[in-house]
Amino acid sequence: MNSKIFLSALSIFAATAIAGAATYALFTASAGSVGNTFAAGTLNLTLDDVDETTPAPTVIASFNLPNMIPGVTAPAQFISMHNSGSIDIAKIKFGTVQDSSTGAGNMANVVQFAKVRTGSSSSCSGSDIGPTIAAKLSVTPPFTLADLQAHGPYDSLPGVDTAGTKYLCINFGMDAAADNSYQGASTTQTFTFEASQ
């Protein structure tokens, strides 16, 4: 009887093995996708101004005010910011570094950002963002070149879409409280712009 049980068990095992093997005998097909490319986009911020109309990484003397008078605000001058990259620029950091200073008084302490506007043309018809910048720098408006140096850069100038242009228009003035120590003084500044996505 044991041999019958053994043969029965062997038959069941063999049948299960054959059925299992049959389960794996299916048709198959394969396909693939080749040549998939993953490349990083680019941020490319260039500038121009009233004197240099071809966008470049560096422009010279965009703001030139040779005979400032205490209490007087000059007409607006501009820098235009261009995005020639393939990614939208979400915001732009704006700062300044003093290159040189001559005279008894440091002009960076009395040259004020009387009005700061951005826009889509050199007239910059937008509202004054100077008070917003001053608040971000934790200073009282109008803020000065020295304030932007000490507490900056300001990190939230509006961005620029791909192939777009944004203008930064600034009316500079000289603090009305500037005394005689500032007569004949000057400062040379490098304005810095850093784009981010």
Can you describe what's shown?
The chain starts with a helix and ends with a strand. With 197 residues, it is α+β, with helices and mostly antiparallel strands. The protein is 19% helix and 32% strand. The strands form two sheets. A four-stranded antiparallel sheet has the order 1-2-6-4, with no helix packed on it. The protein has a three-stranded antiparallel sheet with strand order 5-3-7. The protein has one domain.
Relevant terms:
7 strands; four-stranded antiparallel sheet; 197 residues; 19% helix
- Rg, rounded, reads 34 Å
Tell me the overall shape: elongated
Q: What is the mean predicted local confidence, pLDDT?
A: 91
Strand order of the largest sheet: 1-2-6-4
The low-confidence runs, each spanning 5 or more residues with pLDDT under 50, are none
Distance between the termini: 83 Å
In N-to-C order, the SSE pattern is HEEEEHHEEE
What does the main sheet amount to?
4 strands, antiparallel
Helix percent reads 10-25%
Protein structure class: alpha+beta
What is the tally of beta strands?
7
Which assembly state applies to the chains in this document? single chain
The total number of structural domains is 1
